[in-house]
Specification:
single chain; about 475 residues; Alpha-Beta Plaits; 8-stranded mixed beta sheet; 4-stranded antiparallel beta sheet; 15 helices; 15 strands
Length: about 475
């Protein structure tokens, strides 16, 4: 009886210690958000809106088939910039790379400091044939209706090009002088990989020995209802982006008449391989940029969620299980598998001699292409299926502890005072990865507050941005240049 009572006391004591320790971790979790500073920037809204509106009218469309490019529209856009921002062209060094990529250098007073770079792109995706009538406003009209600017590029990414130049123009008028060199770099083929735009800029600057302290490109934005347990909008700054890889599974063998099939045909074996991959999946692991994100948002969560994340070492398996339940959060913690193409057969009564499948993978930092290939081969366990994989590795992971990230975070907080600003892992591609070889850090952030519907409009129908969002984007770029000067 005494032993049973003693055991009960020990269990109660351990439970009490557990509650005290985990409760202490929760209550002492400190916010990682800097206090916002009042923004005093006053932009000429009428002129700024007119500039973005006009920029949208140029059909600077990127096509996978480069022969379809209408470069006369790109030339008109470049001429428009020079006419619109004469002070920028007078005070900054300007050059064109590959005729259409644009580089502006604002000379700083202290050559001992590494420069920073702000980059965007002015090419846009085509309007899908047959969807033109679904647009409320013509996609290249740049019309201003209901306090919104409409058209291709309002979100992706002429807003970045015009927003940055508006900010520089404003700072020039204010007499601002940068301590460090600042570069503003605008690609013209980002939507098809950036090989002749951002990549050419990087090669040019690399030859000159230029190294950036950081480069800031488009990417994450400020989104409401993004993180469970956080009431405020969350602004996510990409500190890395996933790699994009294509795996092809192929099998060849005897065909024959469909009246006498083998138990396992070429189609069946490829289908089985895909089924195994979908059933197995890569292991979810809360690490790297995903882990960083929750470290920044956890202090702002409701108590229950904060308790779980403050004691991540204990609850990590539970957290990972929850994150894996939704595609968006699962993609944050694992390499994803998406079969997209299946090819086999030509005749309904003839067994195909060859079958193949294409799988798109978005690769986590730390998962190399060679590791991904081995995982596929081990999982499908079929020596007759050939696996080939091509693509890009994940970009490097940039720091969240240095002044570089903190200055971007501060600038965002200055403009969006209620937002929680945190690092994250970007799933899509951007020009930022091109700058990895010449930048110590690369970040990805589109300084607008948008909805999940707005995200779908970026490459879809009815792309538009509110005037308030656009004006805030300009103010952010002003703030980020000021913060980099400190």
């Amino acid at each position: 009886m005494k032993k049973r009572k003693l055991a009960s006391l020990i269990i109660v004591g351990l439970l009490l210690l557990f509650i005290i320790a985990t409760g202490f971790n929760t209550l002492t979790l400190k916010s990682k958000q800097p206090s916002p500073k009042p923004v005093k920037t006053v932009i000429n809204q009428e002129a700024a809106v007119a500039h973005l509106s006009k920029a949208i009218t140029f059909k600077t469309v990127s096509y996978q088939d480069r022969s379809k490019f209408d470069f006369s529209e790109f030339t008109k856009f470049i001429d428009f910039l020079q006419e619109t921002f004469p002070a920028v062209y007078k005070n900054l060094e300007f050059e064109k790379v590959n005729d259409y990529a644009l580089v502006y250098k604002w000379k700083g007073s202290d050559s001992s400091k590494l420069p920073i770079g702000l980059t965007s792109h002015y090419d846009v995706v085509p309007v899908l044939t047959g969807t033109e009538a679904n647009w409320e406003q013509d996609p290249f009209s740049g019309k201003v209706v209901d306090e919104k600017i409409w058209g291709r590029g309002t979100l992706d990414d002429k807003i970045g090009v015009i927003g940055i130049l508006q900010a520089v123009d404003y700072l020039l008028a204010e007499g601002f002088k940068p301590d460090r060199d600042m570069y503003f770099m605008f690609g013209f083929d980002e939507e098809i990989g950036g090989d002749e735009g951002a990549n050419a800029i990087v090669n040019t600057l690399k030859e000159r020995g230029i190294t950036f302290d950081y480069v800031l490109d488009e990417g994450g934005a400020i989104v409401e209802n993004m993180v469970p347990g956080v009431k405020q909008p969350v602004g996510v700054v990409g500190i890395s982006e996933k790699g994009s890889a294509t795996a092809e599974l192929t099998i060849e063998g005897s065909g024959g008449h469909s009246s006498q099939p083998k138990d396992h045909t070429n189609i069946g074996r490829i289908a089985s391989a895909i089924s195994k991959l979908e059933d197995t999946q890569f292991k979810g692991d809360l690490r790297g940029p995903g882990e960083d994100m929750f470290e920044f948002v956890a202090p702002e969560m409701s108590f229950g969620m904060k308790y779980v994340f403050a004691n991540k070492g204990i609850f990590e398996p539970v957290i990972e299980k929850i994150l894996l339940q939704q595609p968006a959060s699962a993609a944050l913690i694992r390499t994803t598998i998406a079969p997209t193409i299946f090819q086999a057969g030509e005749q309904y009564n003839a067994l195909p001699e060859k079958a193949s499948a294409i799988i798109n993978l978005r690769v986590m930092p730390g998962d190399s292409l060679s590791k991904v290939k081995k995982f596929i081969e081990d999982t499908i366990d079929d020596e007759d299926i050939k696996v080939t994989i091509t693509g890009t590795e994940a970009s490097k992971v940039s720091s969240v502890n240095g002044w570089q990230f903190k200055s971007i975070q501060q600038a965002a907080r200055n403009v969006y005072q209620d937002a929680v600003v945190a690092p994250y892992l970007m799933f899509a591609g951007s020009d930022a990865r091109q700058y990895d070889p010449i930048a110590k850090n690369t970040y990805r952030f589109l300084p607008v507050q948008i909805t999940s519907e707005d995200l779908n409009r970026m490459h879809g129908t009815n792309e538009h941005v509110s005037i308030d969002n656009y004006m805030n984007a300009i103010k952010f770029y002003v703030e980020v240049m000021k913060e980099a000067n400190k």
